[in-house]
Amino acid sequence: MLHTFVAYVEDKPGVLTRVASLFRRLNINIISVTVGCSERDGISRMTLVCEASAEAGHRIRASLYKLDNIIEVDDIAGAPAVTRELALIKVAATKQTRSAIFELAEVFRARIVDLTAESLMIEMTGVESKVEGLVQVLEDSDFQILEISRSGKMTMRRGHHTSRVLKAMRPTAEEPEEAEAAAEAE
Amino acid sequence: MDTQANSPSTTPTMLTGAEILWATLVGEGVTDVFGYPGGAILPAYDALRKFPIRHILVRHEQGAAHMADGYARASGKVGVAIATSGPGATNLVTGIATAMLDSIPMLCITGNVSSKVLGTDAFQEVDITGVTLPVTKHNALVTRAEDIAPALRLAIQIARSGRPGPVLVDITKDAQQATALFDFEAAKPKPYRPHPMLKVEIHGLAQAAELIRSAKKPIILAGHGIQQSGAMEQVRTLAERAQIPVAMTLLGIGGFPASHPLNLGMMGMHGEAWVNHAIQEADLILACGMRFDDRVIGTPSTYAPNAKKIHIEIDPAEINKNIKVDVALVGDLKEVLEQLLPQISSHHAGQRNSSTWIKTIEASKGQSAVRDIKNLPDSGHLYAAHVMHDLWRITGGNAIVSTDVGQHQMWEAQYFHHETPRSLITSGGLGTMGFALPSAIGAKVACPKKEVWVIAGDGGFQMTAAELATIKQENLKINIAIINNGYLGMVRQWQEFFYDRNYESTPLISPDFVKLADAHGIAGRAVKTRSELEAAVNEARAHNGPFLLNFLVEQEDSVYPMIPAGRALHEMIRRPGHNPIVETSNDL
Lengths: 186, 588
Description:
The structure holds two protein chains of two kinds.
Chain A: E1 2-10, H1 15-25, E2 30-37, E3 43-51, H2 56-65, E4 70-75, E5 81-92, H3 98-107, E6 111-115, E7 119-126, H4 128-140, E8 145-150, E9 154-157, H5 163-169, H6 176-185
Chain B: E1 13-16, H1 17-27, E2 32-35, H2 42-48, E3 54-57, H3 61-75, E4 79-83, H4 87-90, H5 93-101, E5 106-112, H6 128-131, E6 138-142, H7 148-160, E7 166-172, H8 173-177, E8 179-182, H9 202-214, E9 218-222, H10 225-229, H11 232-242, E10 246-248, E11 263-266, H12 273-281, E12 284-288, H13 294-297, E13 308-313, E14 327-330, H14 333-340, H15 346-352, H16 354-369, H17 384-395, E15 400-403, H18 407-415, E16 424-425, H19 436-446, E17 452-457, H20 458-463, H21 468-474, E18 478-484, H22 489-498, H23 513-519, E19 523-527, H24 530-542, E20 547-552
Parallel strand pairs in B: 2-3, 2-4, 4-5, 5-7, 6-7, 9-10, 9-12, 10-11, 12-13, 13-14, 15-16, 15-17, 17-18, 18-20, 19-20
Antiparallel strand pairs in B: 1-8
Helix pairs in contact in B: 1-2, 1-7, 3-5, 3-19, 12-16, 17-18, 17-24
């Protein structure tokens, strides 16, 4: 099954390697990984998608926590969450074919962000299947896709589940300074 | 370990990075390090003489890592190995992986080229933090003098906390040469954060207690975690109170006294038949600080099919990894057992009539159970089992024994009865040949008053034999027993059983080990028959200095019983009827 993990990691050199190396060691292929800033200074947020057996989720999460640079790991597994992916798709388009592509983009709520005499670039965000749907339609309509760049999934739980709330929900006690920082922020 | 008696560690002072390195170690209570100098670590070596630290010069960095490992296993303290960049660092790798697989707290310090030339393929440059990433619990590259103390203190904290493991700190030469303010207190790491998934729930404890109460055929599987956690008393109390027999993993040996009536002996691939049968027949398995290694379970699908399973383990990633369990108590073994014990009463053991279960196991030992090797008539042959058994008998079982890997390692586990924790030092997880000699050096440095024996095969001994010179230079009283059968014995045994006796590349021509010892200024003797054995062992023990015994044993002897890899625990190859080491009554 598909597993999605959201991890808060220290923003330091080599942290991505450590995470990637763990999956390599477990012989699990990473389908996508996105990394960027989070709401906390010096802490990056990572959304990681991989294919592994249903039981593997526990071991992956437990193993991620064993890495010193990992602060928080959430296994999204079926929880209500918003998932988005950004895709840039460059399609060969002439004066004659352009408008048909515009129409398709319209239907998919995608935007045209670049246009030349021979090609155009579509930008769209959405769930994976929506991106795949647009690609499929473009292909089925015999448009020539020149390039695709997909960001991989970003996921966030729905509702008032900030990382601090998640942390507070955990049964084990936290370091006092963290708890204080959380209290100040409330 | 939290001593800071020496002045450099109490008052903030300007020091060089090299001095900070040693001052931090002193502050952390380190008294001994094992290492080998070289260009990129020379500034550190230059500063060494100013600090109260004993440095043991090794002959190969692999030896340094195994010595630090043996030191840690024998003492429970963090072992420290130090090496230069490039080949010095890569030579540590086998030793680091050995410590990783057996969860040994170890700190490796390597020098690296100057930060200005990092990444340029400079002379003796290697990306050692990259190389060791999968075989360390954590590692770090340090390029500034002011970062050395915090990095080392954090490394030591990580190495010994939770499930212990090796940590490597790579320090560039310019960081060692630069000057910075050394403030030991300020370099203290944040409080250790236990693994966030540790949890022992009240209902989990209650469930475990209920399973123990209602079990008719319970068995405790005693792992390395008992000694790591210091839970010897708690495990013993549990076993005695609930009258549960105890089976040992290889690394569990020593955590529960061999002579205890409830101790069944070692389980797994070369475990005795009654131990493995008891596991297969059990209705409750209580796994204490062990990880259901493949050498212990045979095949997962056929393992203990009738048993409910309780797993007490400090590493959440081990739960349900190889064997699915019914109750997981994820935490430090000692703490968990202390919570569990009040819920276990001896009253229930009586109700269960556990003596029936224990008697069943006793009965299944049958003829093969009790070994009377001592009174066996001398057939003129020398069997490795004799050697192990006599070493145990003559030393009174009080020695620290470092074994290598292979047949002799299994024979030692079967015939040398360990009563006390940290008395068997062996590479269980990685199975590293060449481990015995250097790890014994580490053990002897950690426990100078203890009798220390190396037991190694003729193959493995030659992998790190250069450390004989280290023993001599440090003048360490270590006794060495080479179990010499002229083969890479365990590989030969596999060839005999599974490869039609095609002894490809296993016959071994070795040097005369006694002469080799002599060349190092170490006394020695060859032992060819059983009748010479006792006198030779006594001579070695009495000799003032290291002593090597070359036991020329039966060449094609095999370790029994044996579960072929990938077979079920009860599908053992048993001792052949003609095996001269018949087992009768007197000796257990």
